[in-house]
Amino acid sequence: MSLIDSIIPARAVEANNALRAPLSKHLRWLESEAIHIMRETVAETRNPALLFSGGKDSIVMLRIAEKAFRPDRFPFPLVHIDTEHNFPEVIAFRDQKVAELNEKLIVRSVGDGIRSGRIMLRRADESRNVHQTTTLLDTIKEFEFDALFGGARRDEEKARAKERIISHRDEWGQWDPKNQRPELWSLYNLRIHPGEHVRVFPLSNWTELDIWQYIAHENLAVPSIYFSHRREIVERKGMLVPVTELTPSKAGETVLTQAVRFRTVGDITCTAPVASDAVTVDEIIEETLLSRLTERGATRLDDQTSDASMEQRKKEGYF
Amino acid sequence: MSRLNLASAQTEAAIDTLRFTTAGSVDDGKSTLIGRLLYDSKSILEDQIAAIARTTHKRGQEGLDLSLLTDGLSAEREQGITIDVAYRYFATPHRRFIIADTPGHEQYTRNMVTGASTADVAIVLIDAAKGIQPQSRRHAALAVLLDLPQVVVAVNKMDLVGYKKEIFQKIKSEFTAIARELGVREISFIPVSALLGDMVVNREVVNHKAVNKETVNTNNMPWYAGPTLLEFLETVRVGKTVAPAFRFPVQLVSRVRFGAQQDSRGYLGRVESGSINVGDHVVVLPSGETARIAEIITLEGNAASAAALDSVTITLDRQLDISRGDVIAERFKPPRVTEHFRANVCWLGNEPLTTARRYLLKHGTRTVPAKISSVNSRYDILTLQPEAATTLNTNDIGELSIQVAQPIMVDAYWANHAGGSFILLDEASNATVAAGTILSEPSDV
């Protein structure tokens, strides 16, 4: 598949867009809450930035930013922490999206950190997902960001369920889950000391289903790997693992070609697809409604290590 | 698109959100109740069930301990308690739900207040076997202080008392009296067994004790004709009977200009209450200058009106000097512009309140220096009766008189939650140390 073919926007959405119902009260409330949070953060911090990976949640974040600030330009740059272990379709999508919006994108690479010796790998082929933390914190320091918008949702994971919308980080980038600021009404406390920063999660109250229904309603393009496509995979520990140059099959495994799609898009070495025939956003919504597995449970090879692995990574400064 | 699909699309548009809070301890079966609500409404997915089955087994127990679903942090799992507010999400074809799940012990009052600040409904748990405990009283009192429109009492563990109607009725009449005394607005009672599932989602539950090991479904409380807990949550109406007046705290001022002459500034904000149409008369506060709404701008184009909780950009028909922290309000029903007010305040900080210090007060989009001019009383959190006090400690709730360095535009909290709520920040630590609800003055009535 060439890159150009792979960045065709969400296909069948346009066909029935004319008849699409107004945004539900629920989504309208979520959208407005997210806009309000973004505007509050811009008003009360000195130098914010928005983390953009090309994944579905960060695509919704960009739409929220448009709703919050257009016709002005965004009052912050976009930042991508690149593991260099990417799906090429997603990177092509990222660049096209940034060009369309005419906004500024800063890319900092985990690979640069590895090559300079800043990041030490135990094995050359290990997941770089966890190492994004080092690059992210270095980037925050380099640009002196004091607020970072992220697309994380509370329904994703147990530790996230307890995280505030405005989440304080100390000068080491650490999250202290036992000492979080109470967050009441829509009154956000964005005050920090020099060297500290906040992570801001405007989509905290959204679920995976909300994200897809919003993408459908707003007719937003998403990278093609979210739709069903045929791909070489192996089955490993009950999950489908994509066979790529970075993730070759192991001895004794049978490589199958199967119709799959990705529910989440991350580092290629730790993101697993699910079997799917969904080729439109509406079909994805239907699948999400019927799914019996959570987004991360079905697709993230790195969250399975222990019940607390996300909490641990977050304490250390992860997204 | 077929007519059938269109009909369902229209229903989809009507789907709204209900936010509710639960407070209680593991002993009340609070976590089990939430687990049951999620499990029986099929909101828990297979990998989550597998994970709690593994943990249940690891602890040497059998089956599924549904309370494990809500314990998010490792310290909570180690100690078997809820420490912090956790937010849970589930959906039915009728509504989307957000649960603020909070611990129930007195030392966690601040977490309960946090959860209740955004809730429409409070679920108060009473253990049918133990009867009304101080904790149940405290939860109802907090619902009153935060002006929640609805309280629903889940009388839990009905299975332990033989599903007896008399026990439910006794708790109902006793707690109704308490609720009336406290000033609860609307109260409902539902008998449930979170452990077995009666009246949480289903009226009938599987009865394993049936002869020859066949399972049959039984309604253990045929004497109860009201809704199940989920039916209640799906249908309960919330919101104010009297719509509050239009309030638009300005968040930001646009850099680009609007209007035919390209000379109008856009004011970015969210309609916190009321609604607004193009052409309406407004007053800008604190300056007191008046104007009319010229445009309501959204990404989709200009709108004729904006409703409560819509985030929009508005322009006015004349040039005024407006900045963040100002409020654009309904001209003939403006908020009170004041530097002194009384408020009920829950102290959240680890250090006690001190009248010697300066705090920062954030109200709407305005943050101003503030001083506590006096501590008027501290409430007994079980009865809401005021007692004499000179300070407030962590988790205390009391009435304060507050003075601010610049005017703020306030409403009484009972009339308008957004216009009547504020937080206090500690300038040195940057911590959020208090949450307050502004009281009426004689001039408000």
Describe the structure.
The complex is a heterodimer of chains A (319) and B (445). With 319 residues, chain A is of the alpha/beta class. Helix content of chain A is 32%, strand content 14%. In chain A, the strands form two sheets. Chain A has a six-stranded mixed beta sheet, sandwiched between helices. In chain A, α4 (88-101) links the parallel β2 (78-82) and β3 (105-109). The radius of gyration of chain A is 19 Å and the shape is globular. Chain A starts with a helix and ends with a helix. In chain B, β20 and β21 form a beta hairpin. Chain B has three domains: 3-235, Rossmann fold, CATH 3.40.50; 247-330, Elongation Factor Tu (Ef-tu), domain 3; 336-444, Translation factors (Elongation Factor Tu (Ef-tu), domain 3), CATH 2.40.30.10. Chain B is built from eight helices and 24 strands. Chain B has 445 residues and is an alpha+beta fold. In chain B, 20% of the residues lie in helices and 36% in strands. The interface between A and B is large, with 62 and 67 residues.
User: Structural class of chain B, please?
Assistant: alpha+beta
Biggest interface between chains? A-B, 62 and 67 residues
The gross shape of chain A turns out to be globular
Largest sheet composition of chain A:
6 strands, mixed
Taken together, the total number of domains of chain A comes to: 2
Question: What key phrases describe this protein's structure?
Answer:
heterodimer, A: 319 residues, alpha/beta, Rossmann fold, 2 domains, 6-stranded mixed sheet, 4-stranded antiparallel sheet, 10 helices, 10 strands, 14% strand, B: 445 residues, alpha+beta, Elongation Factor Tu (Ef-tu), domain 3, 3 domains, 20% helix, globular
Outline of the structure:
The complex is a heterodimer of chains A (319) and B (445). Chain A has 319 residues and is α/β, with parallel strands linked by helices. Chain A has ten helices and ten strands.
Fold blueprint:
The complex is a heterodimer of chains A (319) and B (445).
Chain A: H1 3-6, H2 25-44, E1 48-51, H3 56-69, E2 78-82, H4 88-101, E3 105-109, H5 110-115, H6 132-143, E4 147-149, E5 166-169, E6 197-200, H7 208-218, E7 229-236, E8 239-242, E9 256-261, E10 274-275, H8 281-290, H9 295-299, H10 309-315
Parallel strand pairs in A: 1-2, 1-4, 2-3, 4-6
Antiparallel strand pairs in A: 5-6, 7-8, 7-9, 9-10
Chain B: H1 3-14, E1 16-24, H2 30-40, H3 46-58, H4 74-79, E2 86-91, E3 95-103, H5 109-117, E4 121-127, H6 134-145, E5 150-156, H7 165-182, E6 187-191, E7 205-207, E8 216-218, H8 229-235, E9 247-258, E10 264-270, E11 276-277, E12 281-285, E13 289-298, E14 301-303, E15 305-306, E16 311-316, E17 327-330, E18 336-347, E19 358-363, E20 366-379, E21 386-387, E22 397-410, E23 421-425, E24 432-438
Parallel strand pairs in B: 1-3, 1-4, 4-5, 5-6
Antiparallel strand pairs in B: 2-3, 7-8, 9-10, 9-17, 10-16, 11-15, 12-13, 12-17, 13-14, 13-16, 18-22, 18-24, 19-20, 19-23, 20-21, 20-22, 23-24
Helix pairs in contact in B: 6-7
